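Hi F.,

I've been meaning to write this up properly since the lab meeting, where we talked about keeping a consistent format for the predictions we share between groups. The idea is simple: the sequence comes first, exactly as it goes in, then the structure tokens exactly as they come out, then a line or two of notes. No screenshots and no reformatting. I'm using this chain as the first example so we have something concrete to point to.
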Amino acid sequence: MKGILDTLIRNSQKSIDAGVYNNALKLTEPLQKSQKNLEEEIRQSKDVSLITEIKFSSPSRGKIRKKSDPLEIAEKMRRGGARALSILTQPRRFDGSPDYFIKIRKNIDIPLLMKDIIIGTKQIDAAEKMGADYFLLIQALFEPADNRKTDETRHQFIKNNVNELIEYGHNRGLKILLEAHTKTEFENAIHTKADIIGINNRNLDTLKVSRETTKSLLQNYKGNKIIISESGISSEKHIKILREYGADAFLIGTSIMKSSDIENKVSNLVNAIWK
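Output, unedited:
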């Protein structure tokens, strides 16, 4: 599976070229964002803070759940206690859609994260129009690649550096979750003006997962940015361990989307520390 990140970058450009984000960009006025302060709620919460993710497929698991009404899923997640929702807008390999995001935004008032392989400003413009509170950036896309082919792909399709895209988002009233996987990515990420830092326990080139990634990156971390642990989290036990490592909140998708009782699954994870 090596080179998956290279494929994801190319897929994002194909989606842009195919007009995937056009419905969002055509909205006359931006949709209303949430009035809730996610970072403040995470800092003050006595329960587990979850960002639950709506995705029907992924590069690592293939089909996760049969496509169904994303709003119905979002409502179950919210009732279960999700503090925010991450919504895939990338159709290729994830079966996401900006239309899903728009439908949920019009009906759900908690913070929403636009989850995509964002490579340029057009996707950020779409995030603004859709009423996103946050959008995802992946630090690895802006790091020197370890092979020439991937480096050439990044230079071909990514025209801005990470700081420029963060500033572009902030100038449009958006906040940024910046995701890291390696120590170098993490150190570079925490020195940006990103609002929240995510630690992805999954290596996006090999798709292998290790929750020890969160432990490794947070050793000796003394900063004050909110830290989200992502990927490979499916149980109350995982949450308890990752909290001990220093994670403030958790982004969980696959294990919830595969559940036959989404609301109950989310509720059990939210209340993990009380069990």
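Notes:
The chain has one domain: 4-261.
The longest strand covers residues 175-180.

If this format works for you, I'll send the rest the same way.

G.
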